[in-house]
Amino acid sequence: MENLSNLDYASYLKGWIRTVPNWPQQGVMFRDITPLLQNPKTFRMLIDIFVHRYMGENIDVIAGLDARGFIIGSVLAYELNVGFVPIRKKGKLPFTTVAEEYELEYGNATVEMHTDACKPGDRVVLIDDLVATGGTMMAGYKLLKKLGAEVVEAAAIIELPELGGGDLVRDAQLPLFTVCSYDGH
Known about the structure:
cytoplasm, 6 helices, purine salvage, Rossmann fold, 33% helix, single chain
C-alpha cells in the first residue's frame, strides 16, 4: 500500500500529465490530462482529492467549464450527490441562456449556461482542467453570479502561474484550488 502525502499526490498525478510541445501553436507547452484520465488509479485519485475537499461543505451544484471541466465536474457531482451544470461554448445549449464574453490571446470567445442552471443562493464549485490566463474561469464565475449563485471556490487540476490566470481569479476574491502547477516549461 502506498503512503503518499498531499505533496506526493500532486507530484504523482503530475507525472501522468503529458506535455506536448508546440501545440496548438509554436511555443505553447500543452498540458494533456488524457494519460491521467486513462489510468483508473490516477483518475480515481484525482477525483478523490476533489471529493474529500468538498464533501460536507454544503455544495449544491458543480459547474464544469467546456469541455474538460465536464469530465471532472460530472464525476465530482455524482460522487457528492449534487447537480452538475455545464458551461458551454456559445451556441451549444438548446434552452434560454445567459452569456459572458471574455478575451482570448487573439480575439474573444463567449460561454453560456441555461438561465435555470442554478438558483439564487446555490453554493457552487466551478471546475475546469486548467487555469492559464483565467479568462474562461472568470467568465464562468460571472455567469454564475448573474444567476445569483454563491461560487464557493474555483478548482482545476493544473495552474500555469506564469500566465497569471490564478492571480486574476484570486484578485476577484474567488478562492482557487489546484492540484498541481507548472512554472515555466
